[in-house]
């Protein structure tokens, strides 16, 4: 990881809601209802559930999720028209080691 990547991740994490999303996604089974279309969280959490839990506008959460994916904090998987997000644990670990 280089300084530029670390700065981008830091920018993403400098927002309370984005930090909450990272916290919620650490344990999706505890923070979100079971998915109707799939019966596991292997691919992450549907963006709709993240939006509902945040109580912010859909466009705001969509922008947050996009920027978090762009800087590498989240991985997105599509199932039809639905987008699922999960934490990118490898990048999170790399970022933490960079800060040490």
Give the arrangement of secondary structure elements:
Elements: H1 3-12, H2 16-26, H3 28-31, E1 45-46, H4 47-54, H5 58-70, E2 74-79, E3 82-87, H6 89-99
Antiparallel strand pairs: 1-3, 2-3
Helix pairs in contact: 4-5
Tell me what you see in this structure.
One of its GO terms (molecular function) is DNA-binding transcription factor activity. It comes from Zobellia amurskyensis. InterPro entries: ArsR-like_HTH, HTH_ArsR_DNA-bd_dom, HTH_MetalResp_TranReg, WH-like_DNA-bd_sf, WH_DNA-bd_sf. This is ArsR family transcriptional regulator. The chain contains six helices and three strands; from the N terminus they run αααβααββα. With 100 residues, the protein is an alpha+beta fold. The protein has a single domain, classed as Winged helix-like DNA-binding domain superfamily/Winged helix DNA-binding domain (Arc Repressor Mutant, subunit A), CATH 1.10.10. Strands 1-3-2 form a three-stranded antiparallel beta sheet. β2 (74-79) and β3 form a beta hairpin. The protein starts with a helix and ends with a helix.
């Amino acid at each position: 990881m280089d300084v530029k990547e670390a700065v981008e991740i830091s920018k993403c994490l400098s927002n309370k809601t984005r930090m909450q999303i990272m916290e919620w996604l650490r344990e999706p089974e505890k923070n979100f209802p079971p998915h109707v279309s799939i019966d596991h969280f292997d691919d992450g959490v549907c963006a709709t559930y993240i939006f509902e839990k945040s109580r912010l506008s859909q466009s705001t959460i969509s922008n947050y999720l996009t920027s978090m994916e762009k800087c590498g904090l989240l991985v997105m998987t599509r199932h039809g028209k639905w987008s699922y997000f999960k934490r990118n644990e490898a990048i999170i670990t790399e970022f933490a080691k960079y800060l040490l």
